[in-house]
Amino acid sequence: MKVTLAVVLLSSLVLQGCAFAPGQYMSLDDVTDKDPDGPAVTLVNITPTTLAQQQKSAAAMTKPLPPELLSYKTPEYIVGPGDTLLVTVFEHPELTAPGSQDQLDANTREVLHDGTVFFPYVGRIQAGGKTVSQIREQLRMGLAPQYTEVKVDVKVLRYNSQRVLLSGAFKTPGPQPVTNIPLSLVQAISQAGVDLTDANLAGLTLRRDGKDYVIDVDSLNRKDSQLSKIYLKDGDYLHLNSNSKNKIYVLGEVQRPQVISFSTTSVTLLEALGTSGGLSPDAADGEAVYVIRAQDATHSATVYHLNAKKPTAYALAKGFELAAQDVVFVGPANITRWSRYVSQLLGSNNIIQTGAMFRN
C-alpha cells in the first residue's frame, strides 16, 4: 500500500511537471493560440521558400546610390581664406629666398579673410575665389613692368579654406581638408578610421546642400559596390551612427545567453547561435528554435520557427537574416522542464520526508 501510494504520487508529479514547470518556454501551440491580452502573432516556418522571400524583400528594399552623388566630379581647386600659397619667381632671388625651411616660409603668403594676398612689387591682389593658374597669371602680369619675361610658379602649401566634417563612431572624427587632389568618400572614412566596437556600418549619413543621404558602408565589400565613385566637396558632413540599437537578444537553452551587438547590415541566425555557443546539448529542444520579431508602432509580432533537430537545419539558419531587436529563443526539452520542476518543488529532502511520512 505504501509503495503504491508513493508511485502514484511520483507519477502525478511527472505528468504535471511539464505542464507546470517554472521558467519560460514556447511551443507551436503557444504561438498559434490567440491571447486576448497579448499581441497578434503570425507564425512563419523557416524553409527554403521563406529564405527566398526574405532575399527578394531585401533586394527590393536596397536602394541604389543616388545618381547626383555618383555624377559629381571634383572641380579645379578654388583658393580661399586661410590657405597658404608658396610663390616662386625663377631667376630672381630677391623675390624668392631658396634654401632652409625658414627661407621657405618667407616665400609663403597666407590668404587673408577678405581673400587678398600681398606680394612685393605687385601689391595686394584678390586670390580668394580663384584657381592657382589664375593667381599665377595675376602675379606674372603684376611683375611684368619691373621684370621682363618673368617666370612665376604658385602652389597651395597648406589647405585650410575647404573642409569636410566627420562625426560619430570614427576613431578620429573631425575636419578633413579638401585639397587639389579629389577626396573620395572611401578615403575620408579610411583616414578617420571606423570604431568597429561602436559603429553601425549601415548607418552612415552624408549631408550635402541641406539633403541627407543614408549610405551602407558595409556594401563596400560587395563586388558591385560603387562607393569608391563618390567624391566629397567643401561643406559635406559625414555622421556614422552608433550600433547601440543594433542588438540581437539570444535567450533560452543556449550555452551562453547574451545580447549581441553588430556593426554590419545584418547578422544571420546561425551567427547568433554560434556566437552564443550553440544549443545546449543537455537541455535544449532542437524543435523549439524561435525568432521573435515585433513590428514597430503596432501590437503585432512575427514568430519564425526553425526545427533544428537535424543538423541540416543549420543550412537554413545560415541563410536567415536577423533584424535589429530580434529575440532568438531556444526552448527547453520536456525532460529538462520536468527535471527543473522536480528539483525546485521537491528536492531530495522532500522526497525523503515524503517517504518517511508514508512509512509512519
How would you characterize this protein structure?
The protein is an alpha+beta fold and 360 residues long. The protein folds into 3 domains: 22-61 and 245-333, Outer membrane lipoprotein wza fold like, CATH 3.10.560; 84-158, wza like domain (wza like fold), CATH 3.30.1950; 170-242, Outer membrane lipoprotein wza fold like (Roll). Helix content is 29%, strand content 28%. The chain has helices at residues 2-20, 28-32, 48-61, 67-70, 101-106, 132-143, 185-192, 269-275, 314-319, 334-345, 347-359, and strands at residues 40-45, 84-89, 108-110, 116-119, 123-126, 152-158, 163-168, 174-177, 199-208, 211-215, 237-242, 247-252, 258-261, 267-268, 284-294, 300-306, 321-322, 327-332. A 6-stranded mixed sheet has the order 1-16-15-18-12-13. It has a 5-stranded mixed sheet with strand order 8-7-11-9-10, with helices on one face. Strands 3-2-6 form a 3-stranded antiparallel sheet. Helix 1 (2-20) crosses helix 10 (334-345). The longest helix has 19 residues, at 2-20. Residues 5-11 and 17-21 have low confidence and may be disordered. Keywords: Cell outer membrane, Ion transport, Lipoprotein, Membrane, Palmitate, Polysaccharide transport, Porin, Signal, Sugar transport, Transmembrane, Transmembrane beta strand, Transport. It is a multi-pass membrane protein. Its main location: membrane. InterPro entries: Poly_export, Poly_export_N, SLBB_dom. It comes from Pseudomonas abietaniphila.
